[in-house]
Amino acid sequence: MAKITRRPPGKRRTIEEPKEDLMRWLLTYADMITLLLLFFIILYTISSMNISKYKEVSAAFASVFSGGNFGLLFDRSNVGTSDLSNITPQQPAQATQEANRTLLFTKAVSQLKLLIKQNKVRVVANEQGVVITLLSDLSFGSGSAQVRDDYIPVLQQVADFIRGLPNQVRIEGHTDNTPTDETKWASNWDLAAARAINVLTVMEAYGVPPDRMSAVSFGSTRPLMSNETPEGRAYNRRVDIVIVQRPEQLPR
Q: What does pTM read for this prediction?
C-alpha cells in the first residue's frame, strides 16, 4: 500500500512569477531604425532616378499591351550602352525638357499607333526630340526617290500630327552602303537628299508650314545597324522625320 505524506499545516508552495524582460524595448527600437533606413533609401532612389527614362519605359509598355510593338521606344543606335550610367540627379531645366520630350513621344505614339502596329513607321525618342522613321523599302521603290502612291496616306497621317505642333521639323535622308546606279544618282548622298526633299514636299502639300521644315542628307554615314546583312541594310534605308524638342530650336 502506497504511503501518503502530508504537507505540514501552515506551509504553502510559493510560485515564482517570471521576471520581466527589461530588454524587449530593443526589438522595437531595432525595427524602427530598420524602417527609417529603408525609408531614406527609397527617398534617395526617387530623388536620383532618371524620371524621363522611367516615363518612356512606362509609355512603351502601355503601347505594347494596347497592341503596339517593342520597337517603338528603343533607339538602336544606343544598343549596348548602359542606362545605369544615366541615372543621375536631374536639374530642373533638364527635367522639364525631358518631361516635354516624353509628353511629345506619348502623343506621337498615341496618334500613330495604328501605323506603328502595321510596321509602317517607327517612333523613338532621343536627345534631339522625337523621331518618326519611314521605312524606305515601303515608301520608295528600289533606287527611286519617288514616294510610292500607296505610302502617301501614311505621310498624310504623319503630317496631320505634325501640323498641330509648334516644333521645327528636320527631314533626314539615309541609305545603306550599297553603291547607287550612277546612271540615276551620282552617290548615296544624292539619293538620300532627293528622298528627304520629296517627303518634305508631300508634308508641305498636307499643310505642314514650309518655314518649319528643312531637309538634309546623311547618305550612308549614319547607319543604325550593320550593313553586313540584308536585314541591317534594310533597317538603314530610311527617312527620319525629326521633331526637334524645343520649338525655338532651329534645324541644324
A: 0.62
Position of cell 536627345? 127
**Tens digit of pLDDT for each residue in 120-167?**
999 999 988 999 999 878 888 888 899 999 999 999 999 999 999 999
How many of the other CB atoms lie within 10 Å of CB of 125? 28
Q: How many CA atoms lie within 13 A of 201 on its CB side?
A: 9
Query: How far are the Cα atoms of 3, 12, 15, 109, 189 from residue 8, in angstroms, in the given order?
Result: 16, 9, 18, 95, 118
In 92-250, beta strands by DSSP E: 121-126, 129-135, 169-174, 213-219, 238-244
Strand partners, 213: 169
For the domain bounded by 50-244, which CATH number is listed? 3.30.1330.60
Which stretches does DSSP call E strand in the chain? 121-126, 129-135, 169-174, 213-219, 238-244
